[in-house]
Each structure stands twice: as C-alpha cells, then as structure tokens.
Amino acid sequence: MYFLLSSIVSICLQPLSWLLALLVALAFCRQEKWRKRLLFAALIVALVFTNPWLHHTVSVAWEPEPVAFEEIEGPHDDAIVLGGFTRLYATPTDRLHLSGDANRFTHALELFHAGKVKRLVFVSGGKTSSEPVVSEAELATRTAIRFGVPAEAVVALGTSRNTHENAEEYRAFIDKETPTPQRPLLVTSAFHARRSDACFRKAGIEADLFPTDHRSERDHPGRKLTVSNTIVPSPGTMLAWGGLFREWFGLLVYRLRGWI
Prior knowledge:
Mean pLDDT: 91
Largest sheet: 5 strands, parallel
Order of helices and strands: HHHHEHEHEHEHEHH
Strand order of the largest sheet: 3-2-1-4-5
Number of helices: 10
Helix content: 40-55%
C-alpha cells in the first residue's frame, strides 16, 4: 500500500503528468472558452518547466553548498550514509548496482580512505526485488569491504524504510555504543539534505552535512542567462522538477507528522 501511494503521489507531482492531463482534457473539450484556457495552461506548464535556467536557479537556492574534503575537520567517528543509490531491481544480487545518486556511496568510500571518517554506517532497509533478497545497507557494506574498508569499520543498518526511520535506527544503534560517536557526518544527496538533517536533529543527532550529487552544478555556465538555457526548451528539465516537488511534498508530510 505504501509503495502504491508513493507511486501515485510521484506521478501527481510530476509536471509532465500535468501537461499530459491538460492535453487530454483539451482533446475532449468542446467548449471554445475552455479550450483556450486549457491550451494556455498547457503552454505555460511547457514553457516554465522545460526552462533549464529556472530549474538550475531554484536548485542552487535549495541545495546546500558542496563541501570540499579539505574543509572537513576530522576525523569524524561515523559517516552516516543514507540509501537510495542502488538499483534494487538489478540482477544478480551478489554485487552493488549503483543508480543516479551513486556519489552517496563513492564519496563515502573516499572520505574513509582520506582519513576523514573512522567508520562507515550504511542506513537503508530497501531490499532487492529478486533472490537472494539483500538489503541495500548490506549490499553497500559488502562492496565497501571489497574496496578495502576493514570489516570492523563498516556497519549495515538495514531495517529502516524512510528518512525518519533512518534517523531512529541510527539513534538506537549509537545508544548502545560506548563511547557514543561524536559529531557524525551525514552523507546524502544535496536535494535531500535539508529533510535528512531535520530528521536527524529531531532524533537528537547533531551531524555535519556532506551533500552529494548536486543537481545544480554551481560552476556550470547554465547559471548565466543565454539563449540556449532560457529560450530553448529542455524536455529533460521537466522530469527533473519532479524530484524537487517530491522532496518538498515529503518535507511537508514530515512536518505534519511531527518527524521534523
């Protein structure tokens, strides 16, 4: 049920869905007044949400600034690495199949080997969809060990299903630790960093943010006003808005539920 509701919400928050709904309504509408309104609305949605400069500008404002390795004072006891970087439907399940947010995993490895963190803690209860079923946290842990991280320096917490539960699961884990890990580093995608930080603070965990996989590409020439990035539509940009809208909706739901 949760997966079904999540899928429905994701579709409803996608500008491409809005455009398709408007075009379908336009095709069946027979009143000239409403046809003009629907056509105007469809044109506005298409022009606004295919504008790469606008999406870039909003993303820059939303995402925390990248953090250079040399800026990290450490070493931190833990790097808390949130899931969502794995293609859980991919086979075979004897290896890690990385997705578009792969830098959550690869940057965490670099942080460890650079001596910026003492331990990697992968937190994700997502499961592979084929046999043998393995949690994302366990897959990441196995792969990290294959990439030279000592087994005693990596932990898999594989029961939480969302960011709120991620924070609660890590909280329960460190409550059993003596001494308690100090000032962990929270590793997650930049667009998701604000909600993640809020959830962990709600759980009583003060972590430093290490955002990855920036959608905004701050040094990219796309920040400048040019013909190619303001007038020429970019179909892929319309899909990119969906991720931001889902994150903002998730933030609203978390506030209403008292999770942040």
